[in-house]
Design goal:
single chain; mainly alpha
Amino acid sequence: MHEEASQQAAEANTSYDETFMEARKTVVKQLNLLLRLDEPKAKKLLKDYVPEHHHDYLDVFIEKEAIPLPPHRHWDHIVTLIPDAPPSISCRVYPLSRREEEFQREVH
């Protein structure tokens, strides 16, 4: 008697699980249709991201074109850096007014 009840419960659970899965599949399918999730998303072109007045220069925005360094030339030269050099040099390129000097000191 106990085995029969267990078997009936197992069959009922299996039936319930199958019904639930079918219902879930139906709901997901309907939601996909409503939300248009099944449709492939249109890929945006580079022109869609770059302002129109820069379209003549699209090759600059292509990563594989923009990242590599130019080829070495015979006029290339070495810049030797001094190991203990300060990160910046305090120098005045052109005269500043007192107000401009004060502002520059505040900022730096």
